[in-house]
């Protein structure tokens, strides 16, 4: 089962990490495989920068694709070089969500 998690509110970081952790544990317990992605757009893009207290490497180390919205990056004057390592830049977060849903990904937004 493929799933995309979406964060667009900075206050939701603990919730999205908890949701992903719970999803991964249950998927493993039920022997369910598939792609997992986290899309970051809006204000939380600031925490995707290197040196942030939000450690996205914990997710990428698990094989989760972490996608950063280029539009959000531009609105916060963030470049790809500013991001934590292992993140993927997508042109538009809303397009990424629509594309993934069209591909059959389940959508989860805390």
Describe, in plain words, how this protein is organized in 3D.
- The chain is α/β, with parallel strands linked by helices.
- 34% of the residues lie in helices and 19% in strands.
- The chain has helices at 13-29, 57-60, 70-75, 93-102; strands spanning 3-7, 36-40, 65-69, 88-90, 106-108.
- It has a 5-stranded parallel β-sheet with strand order 4-3-2-1-5, with helices on both faces.
- α1 links the parallel β1 (3-7) and β2.
- The longest helix is centred in the N-terminal third of the chain and has 17 residues, at 13-29.
- It starts with a strand and ends with a strand.
- The model has no long low-confidence stretch (mean pLDDT 97).
List the helices and strands and how they pair.
Layout: E1 3-7, H1 13-29, E2 36-40, H2 57-60, E3 65-69, H3 70-75, E4 88-90, H4 93-102, E5 106-108
Parallel strand pairs: 1-2, 1-5, 2-3, 3-4
Structure in a nutshell:
The protein is of the alpha/beta class. It has helices at residues 13-29, 57-60, 70-75, 93-102, and strands at 3-7, 36-40, 65-69, 88-90, 106-108. The chain is built from four helices and five strands.
